């Protein structure tokens, strides 16, 4: 057993760039990381029904560090409906660094939805650097498909399964994938053993789980190994790698 930190630890403060370096992407190949915050009692949201009440400034630094050099931010429709996503852009210096690495200037947002009932009035659709992607299935309602195509590149998959979702992104050259949830989409990706890395922040409080999205049980516990822990203000920002994940 090792002592990683205690309440008296006075480690050096990391800059945003330091943090980004601690969340590296592999040089090649597909890599799927999950970025989530959870309370001590396992809730994904606080009383506001949002993650806002359970996150912190440090958690947001990590959140942004993971986004900065991702190819795509993958989210479930309910997260976009609840969290009012803002446009996906990148700072000019990040755009330059991304270009040097052969990436698009900013990450693209990809939304998974069966219903296609999305908040089209949000600026995330028109204000993002890259046209957002919507992943749906071939049986989607034609009128809703037509509306979605006004705002996004719509990929209609035979089945909206986790494998097909990830394959469709990789086929477009989007191999550095961060999923920001929600819990329902994350559960599907985990059940399919598609998540290589879980970047989970432990928020030091209890909020109750009544408002938290309930997710179906997995058939077995999916194991991850601890790779790194950062701490600020009692928030623990962890990196866990899937057992057997090769970077
Ligand atoms: N703590 C955190 O870090 C965190 C992160 C993200 C979100 N949240 C919170 O979590 C809540 C949202 O999470 P959630 O679990 O309820 O929903 P979610 O995972 O964000 O989205 C679920 C929706 O995604 C679509 N979807 C996902 N997989 C699908 C599949 N295989 N086939 C068809 N459709 C699929 C469906 O959309 P349609 O209904 O359109 O068909 C489904 O209703 C919000 O309250 C948000 O604030 C917390």
Written account of the structure:
The model has no long low-confidence stretch (mean pLDDT 95). The protein has a domain at 42-195: Dihydrofolate Reductase, subunit A. The protein is of the alpha/beta class. 38% of the residues are buried. The protein is globular. Strands 5-4-3-2-6-1-7-9-8 form a nine-stranded mixed sheet, sandwiched between helices. Strand 3 (108-112), helix 5 and strand 4 (133-137) form a beta-alpha-beta unit. The protein is built from eight helices and nine strands. NADP nicotinamide-adenine-dinucleotide phosphate (NAP) binds at residues 36-37, 44-45, 49-51, 75-79, 82-83, 112-115, 117, 160, 180-185, 188, 213.
How would you concisely characterize the structure shown here?
28% of the residues lie in helices and 23% in strands. By secondary structure, the protein is an alpha/beta fold.
Helix share of residues?
25-40%
Label the CATH architecture of the domain at 42-195.
Answer: 3-Layer(aba) Sandwich
What is the fold-level CATH name, i.e. the topology of the domain at 42-195? Dihydrofolate Reductase, subunit A
**CATH homology superfamily name of the domain at 42-195:** Dihydrofolate Reductase, subunit A
Structural class: alpha/beta
Shape: globular
């Amino acid at each position: 057993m090792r002592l990683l930190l205690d309440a008296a630890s006075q480690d050096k403060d990391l800059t945003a760039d330091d943090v980004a370096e601690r969340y590296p992407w592999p040089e090649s190949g597909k890599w799927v990381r999950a970025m989530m915050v959870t309370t001590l009692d396992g809730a994904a949201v606080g009383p506001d029904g949002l993650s806002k009440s359970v996150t912190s400034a440090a958690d947001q630094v990590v959140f942004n560090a993971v986004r900065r050099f991702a190819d795509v931010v993958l989210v479930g429709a309910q997260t976009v409906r609840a969290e009012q996503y803002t446009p996906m852009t990148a700072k000019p210096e990040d755009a330059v660094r991304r270009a040097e690495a052969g990436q698009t200037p900013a990450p693209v947002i990809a939304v998974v939805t069966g219903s296609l009932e999305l908040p089209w009035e949000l600026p995330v659709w028109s204000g993002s650097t890259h046209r957002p992607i919507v992943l749906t299935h071939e049986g989607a309602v034609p009128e809703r498909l037509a509306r979605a195509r006004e705002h996004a590149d719509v990929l209609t998959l035979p089945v909206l399964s986790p494998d097909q979702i990830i394959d469709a992104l990789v086929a477009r050259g989007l191999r550095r994938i961060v999923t920001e949830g929600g819990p329902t989409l994350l559960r599907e990706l985990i059940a399919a053993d598609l998540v290589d890395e879980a970047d989970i922040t432990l928020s030091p409080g209890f909020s109750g789980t009544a408002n938290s999205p309930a997710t179906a049980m997995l058939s077995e516990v999916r194991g991850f190994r601890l790779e790194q822990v950062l701490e600020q203000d009692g928030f623990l920002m962890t990196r866990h790698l899937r057992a057997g994940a090769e970077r």
